[in-house]
Amino acid sequence: MTHISKQDIINLPSLERMHLINSCGGIKSGNLIGTLSKSGVSNLAVFNSVIHLGSNPPMLSFMLRPTTVERHTYSNFLENNQFTVNHIHESFVDKAHQTSAKYDADVSEFKEVGLTEEYIEGFNAPFVKESKIKMGCTFVNEYFIKEHACRLIIGEIQHILVEDGLQQEDGFLDLAKANSAGIIGLDGYVKTNLLERYAYARPNQELKPLKS
Ligand SMILES: Cc1cc2nc3c(=O)[nH]c(=O)nc-3n(C[C@H](O)[C@H](O)[C@H](O)COP(=O)(O)O)c2cc1C
User: Which H or E run contains 76?
Assistant: First the structure.
C-alpha cells in the first residue's frame, strides 16, 4: 500500500494534488443545479457536493466555491430564492460536465449543452426535463467556511419529482434503477449498482437484508 503523507501532498504539482484530494473522500452525488436570473436567463451547473441535511423539515446542502469569480448559480438564487437540484442520468454525463464551463451570464447552459428546461407552476427555477429525479428548493441560509472561503448553502426541499417505478414502498428512491450517475473527483462519472439494502442495525442482532 502506498503511504502519502501530508508533506507528500503539499509537494505534489497542484493539478495532481487536486485530483488526489478531490477523489479520496469517496464517490459523490452528481447533480445539476438550475436557477433563473432576474432578467430571465436560465442557468445550469454541475455540483458534486449535494447532501441531505435532515428530513423534517426536508433540507439539503451543497458547497459553493469561493466567490472570487462570478458564480451565477449563487447570484441567481440570492435574487429569487429558488433553485432546482436535478440528478445526472448516465445518458447525459457529457452534457452535465460541459455545464462547468465558464459561460457568460447572458448565456443559458441549457441551450449550450442541449438539455431541456422544464417549469412547474408557482416555482421560479428551471428543472432539467431529462432528469428522472429532481427537487425544487428554496434558499434558506449560507455559512461561510473561513478555512477555504467556501460557503455551505442550505436549501429547503419544496418539491420532489420522481419518474414512476423508481420509489420503493418504504419511500426509498432506487437511484441505481434510475441510472443516476455518481462522481469521482472532478471529472470521473460512475454508474451505480445497488448491492443490498439492510434493515436497521442493532447490537447483538443478526443483520437482515431487506427484500426489494
Ligand atoms: C464534476 C464537477 C463538480 C463540481 N462541483 C461543484 C461544487 O460542488 N460546488 C461548486 O461551487 N462548484 C462545483 N463545480 C464547478 C461549477 O460547475 C462551475 O464553477 C460552474 O461554472 C458554475 O457555474 P455558475 O457560475 O453558472 O454557477 C463542479 C465542477 C465539476 C466539473
Answer: helix 72-80
Structural domain containing residue 72: 26-190
For residue 97, give the DSSP letter: H
Assigned domain for 175 exists: yes
What is d(CA 147, CA 74) in angstroms, rounded to the nearest whole number?
20
Strands (DSSP E) found in the chain: 28-29, 31-36, 42-47, 51-55, 58-64, 82-87, 117-118, 127-128, 133-145, 150-162, 182-184, 188-190
Query: Does 58 map to a domain?
Result: yes
Span from the CA of 30 to the centroid of ligand 1 (angstroms): 11
Quote the DSSP letter at residue 90.
Answer: G
Number of structural domains in the chain? 1
* pTM of the model as a whole: 0.98
Which residues lie with the beta carbon below 6 Å from any ligand 1 atom? 43, 45-49, 62-65, 70-73, 97, 100, 102, 183, 186
Each residue's pLDDT tens digit, 30-61: 999 999 999 999 999 999 999 999 999 999 99
CATH number of the domain within which 117 lies: 2.30.110.10
How far does residue 196's CA lie from ligand 1's centre (Å)? 31
Residue whose Cα lies nearest atom 26 of ligand 1: it is 72
